[in-house]
């Protein structure tokens, strides 16, 4: 691949190649960064889609395992449904692009990013955002404001642009910044409890590093850009809009006099029925063709009212102050048989999270192009229809559920104890019971409660909050609000989620519906989110102040040990014979890592200890001079064979069976007897020579010594 345009980003070459690929796409290009390459194709339908009131943009991120030299697992041997990573990468590309398309566009637009080559140092998820923006900007599709994306790390107090694989391992910050040449469009962050000032500076650093990439896109547009198509934008008939506004104005104002969501929704349903009945009479047979326009005007009137309250009257729909949080409630141990459970409520948003602890062998194995191959901490998020009081079919998790689960997972990940500290696989499931604003951050709070209830020793409790924004059309006025409820998210300009601890931030995710966020908005949102977080943490501590000292009665008990890796084969045995017998005899689960780490999990701690003892015996080296309690396994004329450790047998010669002379072995011991024996030596062939006689003599000496000490006079 020979790029026709290049720039340098963080000391590595980023390039674009186009013109000789994907001949039938509106625009097709290869974008490379080092040896990571994305193939991007963008297309738009010729005509608008009828009967819709939204912009039908789809962004697909296609992972190809050949990009990392892998063949897919399973029987089919081809890529199947998108991995979780692919879904998240698609969402991350969609979110900063969508607000920059012209309002009223109803033509289908599709962006397909195919990952065709991956170099671990250069993340394809970041490159895909740049490739999508470049292709759209060059194409004839009416997209005229490009964006650029970079990753920002923090190593020993210094920011690093697009950190390499090794740098990411030691970085305390994993920040993605997407920006235009004027404003920040999207922020995604995972952090090791970074303070607010550092995070703000990191975002500013990322914004600056985006600019050379934007300059390359501008050059690509100048040299190779197609003429932008003049597309028919959806416009509402002026007379229809006038009539709807005139009839529905008072009805909608009445609806938004209700502070409680359920009451407001009920009033809105009645208002929509009245509006529909009225205009069926007004428009007669034309009503069906005007129905979507009427609905859109009603939507715009609601949006204008909510925004006018905030911007001009400095008032929120539910009457709260701009920095006020809704009523908070926390509870733990709400389910009797689960390993840990937490219930968190913030106003009408309520999330229940259940924690389940499993053995290390229950880790999730990943089959994808990312460097991560296993997950020990897993977070799932469910958003059923009843959470918003609706009815719809219950299907598998959608892109939104996967994204929200990943966000909550990222917020807590820096606080999860290591495998050495807490040798469990941890699964959290957050069930949204009621939704009215930022359920993902409610899931962070409920999950913290569940983990602490389960006895997981978190570094610190974590809480999350969502900040909102209302602006004027020219962005001249900006009002940031704390703890947005659903209507403020729906009609507002920003959803700025921040999670963290008392010490600092662990995650950020920002979506915006406008042409980007100013430095003032970013700083205010992050600063005010900290104040809100402290209040939430105080309430959570009222339910549970620290993690429980022990795991649940119903959770598996895990013992760990370290053995010589060369001894692993002895524990497993031929065809798994040895380890399977241990499992059958004790009822435990046993997981062994290549480094010799052994994890024994069982509901009965005594059985786990028994398995521990057996493995210890198998792997322990026999040392000359040590005394063992062994079992007689065989009798011979010349002595008795005694098993002193599992699969370790030695010979007690007849002359070493007793202190006195022994005529027959059977006179002293029988098969199955347990006797104390001392290891005399291990010969050059590994044979173990034992002595019962020496063990008895040692015991006699010890007994005599203790008797002498007891008889000795005391000294003052």
What's the short story on this structure?
The protein has 15 helices and 29 strands. With 716 residues, it is α+β, with helices and mostly antiparallel strands.
Task: Summarize the main sheet.
Answer: 8 strands, antiparallel
CATH architecture of the largest domain: 2-Layer Sandwich
Number of discrete domains: 5
Residue stretches low in confidence (pLDDT < 50, at least 5 long) are none
Spatial ordering of strands, largest sheet: 8-7-9-10-21-20-18-19
- Compute the CA-based radius of gyration: 34 Å
The chain-level structural class is alpha+beta
Helix content: 25-40%
List the total number of helices: 15
Mean pLDDT: 93
Kindly report how far apart the N and C termini lie.
93 Å
Shape: elongated
Would you give the CATH topology of the largest domain?
A: Ribosomal Protein S5, domain 2
* CATH superfamily annotation of the largest domain: GHMP Kinase, N-terminal domain
| The level-1 CATH class of the largest domain | Alpha Beta
User: What's the total number of strands?
Assistant: 29
Strand content: 25-35%
């Amino acid at each position: 691949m020979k790029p026709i345009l290049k720039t340098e980003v963080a000391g590595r070459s980023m390039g674009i190649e186009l013109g000789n690929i994907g001949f039938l796409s509106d625009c097709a290009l290869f974008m490379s960064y080092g040896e990571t390459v994305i193939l991007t194709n963008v297309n738009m339908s010729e005509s608008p889609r009828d009967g819709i009131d939204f912009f039908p943009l789809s962004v697909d991120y296609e992972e190809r395992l050949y990009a990392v030299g892998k063949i897919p697992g399973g029987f089919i041997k081809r890529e199947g449904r998108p991995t979780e990573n692919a879904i998240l990468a698609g969402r991350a590309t969609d979110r900063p692009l969508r607000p920059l398309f012209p309002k009223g566009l109803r033509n289908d637009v599709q962006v397909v990013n195919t990952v065709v080559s991956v170099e671990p140092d250069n993340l394809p998820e970041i490159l895909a955002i740049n490739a999508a923006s470049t292709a759209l900007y060059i194409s004839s599709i009416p997209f005229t404001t490009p964006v650029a994306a970079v990753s920002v790390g923090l190593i020993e107090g210094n920011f690093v642009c697009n950190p390499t694989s090794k740098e990411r391992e030691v970085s305390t910050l994993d920040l993605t910044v997407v920006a235009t040449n004027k404003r920040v469009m999207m922020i995604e962050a995972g952090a090791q409890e970074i303070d607010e000032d550092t995070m703000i500076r990191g975002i500013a650093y990322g914004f600056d590093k985006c600019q050379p990439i934007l300059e390359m896109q501008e050059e690509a547009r100048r040299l190779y850009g197609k003429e932008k198509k003049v597309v028919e934008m959806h416009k509402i008939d002026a007379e229809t809009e006038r009539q709807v506004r005139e009839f529905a104005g008072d009805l909608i104002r009445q609806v938004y006099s209700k502070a409680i969501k359920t009451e407001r929704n009920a009033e809105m349903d009645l208002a929509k029925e009245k509006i529909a009945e009225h205009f069926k009479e007004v428009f007669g047979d034309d009503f069906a063709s005007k129905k979507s326009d009427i609905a859109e005007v009603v939507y715009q009137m609601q949006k204008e009212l909510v925004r006018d309250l905030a911007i001009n009257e400095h008032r929120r729909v539910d009457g709260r102050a701009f920095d006020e949080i809704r009523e908070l409630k926390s509870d733990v141990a709400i389910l009797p048989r689960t390993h840990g459970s937490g219930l968190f409520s913030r106003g009408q948003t309520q999330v229940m999270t259940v924690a389940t602890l499993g053995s290390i062998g229950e880790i999730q194995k990943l089959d994808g192009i990312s460097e991560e191959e296993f997950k020990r901490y897993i977070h799932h998020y469910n958003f059923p229809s009843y959470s918003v009081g609706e009815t719809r079919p219950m299907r598998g998790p959608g892109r939104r559920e996967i994204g929200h689960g990943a966000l909550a997972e990222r917020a807590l990940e820096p606080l999860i104890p290591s495998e050495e500290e807490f040798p469990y696989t941890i699964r959290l499931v957050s069930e949204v019971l009621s939704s009215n604003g930022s359920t993902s951050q409610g899931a962070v709070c409920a999950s913290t409660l569940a983990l602490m209830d389960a006895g997981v020793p978190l570094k610190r409790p974590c809480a999350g909050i969502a900040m909102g924004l209302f602006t004027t059309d020219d962005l001249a006025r900006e009002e940031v609000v704390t703890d947005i409820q659903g209507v403020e998210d729906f009609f507002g300009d920003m959803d700025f989620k921040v999670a963290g601890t008392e010490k600092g931030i662990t995650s950020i995710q920002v979506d915006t519906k406008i042409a980007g966020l100013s430095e003032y908005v970013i700083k205010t949102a992050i600063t005010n989110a900290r104040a809100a977080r402290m209040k939430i943490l105080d309430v959570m501590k009222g339910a549970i102040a620290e993690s429980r000292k022990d795991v649940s009665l119903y959770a598996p008990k895990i013992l760990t040990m370290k053995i010589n890796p060369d001894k692993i084969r002895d524990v497993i045995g031929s065809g798994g014979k040895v380890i399977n017998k241990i499992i059958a005899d004790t009822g435990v689960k046993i997981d062994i890592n290549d480094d010799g780490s052994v994890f024994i999990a069982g509901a009965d701690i005594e059985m786990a200890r028994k398995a521990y003892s057996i493995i210890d015996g198998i792997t322990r080296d026999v040392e000359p001079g040590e005394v063992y309690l062994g079992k007689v396994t065989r009798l011979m004329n010349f002595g008795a064979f005694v098993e002193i450790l599992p699969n370790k047998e030695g010979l007690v010669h007849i002359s070493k069976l007793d202190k006195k002379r022994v005529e027959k072995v059977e006179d002293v011991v029988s098969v199955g007897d347990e006797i104390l024996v001392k290891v005399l030596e291990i010969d050059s062939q590994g044979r173990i020579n034992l002595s019962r006689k020496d063990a008895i003599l040692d015991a006699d000496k010890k007994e005599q010594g203790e008797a002498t000490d007891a008889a000795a006079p005391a000294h003052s």
